Amino acid sequence: KQEVTQIPAALSVPEGENLVLNCSFTDSAIYNLQWFRQDPGKGLTSLLLIQSSQREQTSGRLNASLDKSSGRSTLYIAASQPGDSATYLCAVPGGTSGSRLTFGEGTQLTVNP
Amino acid sequence: EAEVAQSPRYKITEKSQAVAFWCDPISGHATLYWYRQILGQGPELLVQFQDESVVDDSQLPKDRFSAERLKGVDSTLKIQPAELGDSAMYLCASSPGGAYGYTFGSGTRLTVV
Fold it and tell me: What is the mean pLDDT of each run of 10 residues along chain B (113 residues)?
């Protein structure tokens, strides 16, 4: 059974800092990994989708890397802003159907002005 | 940009009452998912549809939950009777295929009193 762990559970940083969020998964037989952002009381917004054949994916100030062999992914946020405050979730497909997403419990990020 | 539509956004219901949620996926997305997210945790799959067929409902409490996607387009998730422990965010997602990632709706926040 796939298990996804995110570290740290919570992170508070001053505005402008670069930061790294970590995600690890137990079954490396994945075909992609997706990072999401969730604002309080809202749904999930997709940030980045990394295919298993890729090592990293970039969007603006966000960069996600994937190392399948070690079962790890990182989300790098450059020059953090207060608007980046949210919970960040990583998810990998798996399960009996082959596509059910398994999520970590998220990292709650607070960027202080 | 295409969105997954969900309604209602919020629902307060009394214990033992029936409640229903609606989801309209992105046009052309054959796969539709219902997830439940308890506060502070990652979402967990309740049911997955491929067109109008259920392909994974192993985590759905079938004694009180039901889901349908009659024409393979929009979907309804029902709880009857609702229990206090059902208070959570109910998220709908759709995908054209797992390799292309998943798009989530804004969710329905259910409070059972």
Answer: 93 98 95 95 94 93 95 95 97 87 95 97
Cross-chain Cβ contact B33/A101 below 8 Å: yes
Give me B81's structure tokens. 């009777």
> Is A24 in the B-facing interface, judged by CB distances under 8 Å?
no
DSSP bridge partners of B92: B34
Largest Cα separation within chain B, whole Å, is: 40
Residue A36: name the closest of A49, A52, A19, A55 by CA.
A49
The string of DSSP letters for A19-66 reads EEEEEEES----SEEEEEEE-TTS-EEEEEEEETT-SEEEETTEEEEE
A25-55 burial, b at 16+ Cβ within 10 Å, e below that, comes to beeeebebbbbbbbeeebbbebbbbbeeeee
Among the partner residues A31, A97, A105, nearest to B48 by beta-carbon distance: A97
Torsion of CA B96, B102, B107, B111, to 10 degrees: 110
